[in-house]
């Protein structure tokens, strides 16, 4: 590493340490900013495992709601449980998530080195990752986003190592990471399908049976949790979270599903499936959904995270329309007029950063430099996440955070390739 890149790296580490320390202090002084509605269910699930040996994301003192037996997968609550054995303080999970963020930075650094990214550009990519506002915000919250991001980044790095060293342990670790990612957030539930396809292609190149066997690991994780849910609720399923999401995407859906028995739960889950099926069979609903999909996918890549910023600061309630977050079809001019000028400038600048990242990433799938299987895997993860989030009409910025490091890696690889071509043109005249 040259001296300029080394000084830049030291400056980034110092700035990052100051910003994360300030964010941590902000969370200590205002602990409410660490909590979103999901956070309470994660904590309750961890508490019930510790105190009662039961995985349930609600209070066992109230009437049992069978929806809460499976609404949250066990990955993040189990992490909270392990950490709570050392200390009940909510600061410990936050410290651990900051630690995961820095470990993720080390992985990103080494991954870029394996991909022959120049040192100065590698430091720049690391700076974007560590100083990205969403990264700072969610490392301070009792939410599963940081853990999911770490697992997906680790899976991509294990693929890099497998392609380079051909050791079976790395393909096993890749799929264990994906299996843990599914148990972290249900959004990863169906990624086993493109992952299996990738492993079939890998097997055709490297004829080792362990490749196909390893691809079954995420499916095994999913099946085991579905079996547990069947034992508890009487319905073989992975998560009841869809009963919450349909109220955002299907008109007329109930605000909340409450099931006091296994029979009620089975009926409610069937009802949710029928509501979703009725929409899929309705031509008008299909056209409406399809027309929104490009906009939702664009929002996935560009959303500056207004909800995240307002949750973390927090600012006065009247400064943002929370209704807009859930129902984006209302008058956007009213929404923008309700935001103060400094916040609007912040959101605008972050929008430009997101735009630059995605524009830099666009050539990545078509480059000849990186291994095609790695490119395919990263593009699969990014497209899968964007498509699932866009189709479900869920919050966008925090779901993009899980693949943000991969977008940054792809953008850095493409930028390095463009720089090499420019240098070649300047030196030889051949572009």
Structural account:
This protein is mostly helical and 431 residues long. It has 21 helices and no strands. It is globular and about 75 Å long. Residues 317-328 have low confidence and may be disordered.
Strand content: under 5%
Q: Estimate the mean pLDDT confidence.
A: 86
Q: Indicate the low-confidence ranges by residue numbers.
A: 317-328
Largest sheet: none
- Decide which structural class fits the backbone: mainly alpha
Estimate the helix proportion, in percent.
over 70%
- Separation, N- and C-terminal Cα atoms: 27 Å
How much is the radius of gyration in Å? 22 Å
Order of helices and strands: HHHHHHHHHHHHHHHHHHHHH
> What form results from the Cα inertia axes?
globular
Fill in the keyword field for this structure:
431 residues, mainly alpha, 72% helix, 0% strand
Topology:
Layout: H1 3-29, H2 37-52, H3 75-86, H4 91-114, H5 119-131, H6 133-139, H7 145-165, H8 168-182, H9 192-205, H10 209-214, H11 217-233, H12 242-249, H13 262-281, H14 283-302, H15 306-312, H16 322-326, H17 332-337, H18 341-361, H19 372-392, H20 397-400, H21 404-428
Helix pairs in contact: 1-4, 1-5, 2-3, 4-5, 4-7, 4-21, 5-21, 7-8, 7-19, 8-11, 9-19, 14-19, 18-21
């Amino acid at each position: 590493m040259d001296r300029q890149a080394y000084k830049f790296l030291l400056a980034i580490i110092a700035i990052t340490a100051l910003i994360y320390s300030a964010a941590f202090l902000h969370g200590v002084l205002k602990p409410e900013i660490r909590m979103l509605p999901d956070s309470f269910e994660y904590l309750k699930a961890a508490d019930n495992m510790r105190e009662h040996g039961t995985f349930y994301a609600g209070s066992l003192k109230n009437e049992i709601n069978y929806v809460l037996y499976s609404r949250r997968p066990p990955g993040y609550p189990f992490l909270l449980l392990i950490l709570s054995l050392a200390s009940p303080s909510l600061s410990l999970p936050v410290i651990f998530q900051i630690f995961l963020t820095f470990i993720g930075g080390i992985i990103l650094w080494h991954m870029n080195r394996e991909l022959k990214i120049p040192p100065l550009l590698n430091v720049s990519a690391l700076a974007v990752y560590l100083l990205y506002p969403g990264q700072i915000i969610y490392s301070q919250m009792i939410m599963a986003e940081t853990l999911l991001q770490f697992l997906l980044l680790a899976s991509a790095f294990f693929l890099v190592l497998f392609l380079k060293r051909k050791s079976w342990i790395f393909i096993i670790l890749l799929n264990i990471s994906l299996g843990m990612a599914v148990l972290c957030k249900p959004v990863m539930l169906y990624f086993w399908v493109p992952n299996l396809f990738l492993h079939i292609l890998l097997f055709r190149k490297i004829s080792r049976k362990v490749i196909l066997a390893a691809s079954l690991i995420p499916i095994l994780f999913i099946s085991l949790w579905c079996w547990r849910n069947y034992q508890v609720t009487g319905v073989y399923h992975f998560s009841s979270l869809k009963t919450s999401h349909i109220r955002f995407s299907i008109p007329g859906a109930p605000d909340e599903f409450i099931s006091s028995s296994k029979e009620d739960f089975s009926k409610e889950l069937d009802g949710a499936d029928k509501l979703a099926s009725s929409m899929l069979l309705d031509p008008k609903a299909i056209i409406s959904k399809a027309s929104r999909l490009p906009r939702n996918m664009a929002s996935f890549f560009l959303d500056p995270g207004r909800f995240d910023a307002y949750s973390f600061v927090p600012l006065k309630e009247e400064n943002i329309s929370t209704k807009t977050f859930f129902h984006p079809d209302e008058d956007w001019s009213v929404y923008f007029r309700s935001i103060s000028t400094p916040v609007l400038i912040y959101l605008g600048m972050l929008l430009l950063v997101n735009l630059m990242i995605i524009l830099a990433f666009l050539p990545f799938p078509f480059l000849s430099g990186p291994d095609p299987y790695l490119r395919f895997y990263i593009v699969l993860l990014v497209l899968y996440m964007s498509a699932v989030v866009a189709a479900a009409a869920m919050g966008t910025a925090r779901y993009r955070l899980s693949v943000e490091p991969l977008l940054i890696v792809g953008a850095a690889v493409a930028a390095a390739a463009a720089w090499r071509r420019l240098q070649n043109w300047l030196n030889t005249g051949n572009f």
